[in-house]
Amino acid sequence: MGKQILIVDDDEKIAKLIEIYLLNEGYTVFKADDGYKALEMMDIEAIDLVVLDVMMPGLDGITVCLRIRETRTTPILMLSAKDGDMDKITGLMTGADDYMVKPFNPLELVARVKSLLRRASYAVSVPQQQQEHIIKISSLQVDKETHTATVEGNALKLTPIEFGILYLLASHPGRVFSSEEIFELIWKDKYFESNNSVTVHISRLRDKLEKEMDGEKLIRTVWGVGYKIEG
Predict the structure, then answer these.
(1) pLDDT digits (tens, 9 = 90+) for 49-59
(2) pTM value?
(3) 33, 195, 210, 211: which has the fewest C-beta neighbours closer than 10 Å?
């Protein structure tokens, strides 16, 4: 069965436009015109990705994103009529994986969807000598095969991007990765200047790790260079 995508937007014309392009790519498409219906649909169908508008009556997209992230790591592409770094950061901090501003090119949206779906099953390539399927650092255990991370047996609720970043750093202990390297390896896209995506996701990942690891700071910032995890 093909991938199932949920479009959540109260603008019927935009939702229909997105649907046409996604159907053309062979995806199964579901639609919801408000946040409550979207959450109901998530409980009924096995949704592989959500295209989620920020501004909606009733339950807005930010709240829907937060609700989804309570129990799921389903990739989320947020749409908004607002531009600017703060809007993007707000969307990403709620757990969104990517962000597009309206009006957008439907072909670019399809490309973003494909990229997100690839990343959801993404496994970072590591040197042959590091192909062990479980990595242990301090109380953290990262399992490449099951795509899970645990701290003393407690599972971390990580999005595909967060897991990708964690696995990348953990599988190369001591190596410093720049924001550009992380973005291009995980997002599989060209890095552009003033992109805050890596910073936001690193911050969110750190919060989750430190909460479970009693404040232990596993991810280190090397100022002016990038990020690393010591072995």
Answers:
(1) 999 999 888 88
(2) 0.64
(3) 211
